[in-house]
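Collaborator request, handled under Task 6.
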Amino acid sequence: RGARRAARGAAKRVAATASTSIQFIRGVNESTVPDVRLTRAKDGQNGAAYFTFAKPDVFEASAEMGEITGLYLIDEEGELTSTEVSCKFINGKPSAVEAKMSMRSAFEWDRFMRFMERYAEEQGLGFEKAKK
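Structure tokens returned to the collaborator:
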């Protein structure tokens, strides 16, 4: 019984240290790490992030937890939201989720980048500039 309590306490501590999450259904974290492609206008005012989640968990969860309602990027600063989400199907079966996060100002871009820096650090990811 004591071991169970200790394990539960450890799980709570791990959950508390994770400060970022990506969700498609509110309250259901997506564990699949996406491929993210960024574009930005030369003047820095507009930009977009394109996410591709290959075989995401949400396909399993949506049967039990509900429908995909958007893309929610959650961190210690709050939440970034996009409703530009679509599913890709191969032979009638869901295979990927694609989402677009539009940023219409330098402030929105900087906020998104702060989220991505936290998310990348937690997931052990790196950033690679596009080759010209």
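The cover message to the collaborator said: "The CA atoms of residues 62 and 118 lie 26 Å apart. The beta strands are 21-25, 28-29, 35-40, 47-54, 71-75, 78-82, 84-90, 93-103. Please let us know whether this matches your experimental observations."
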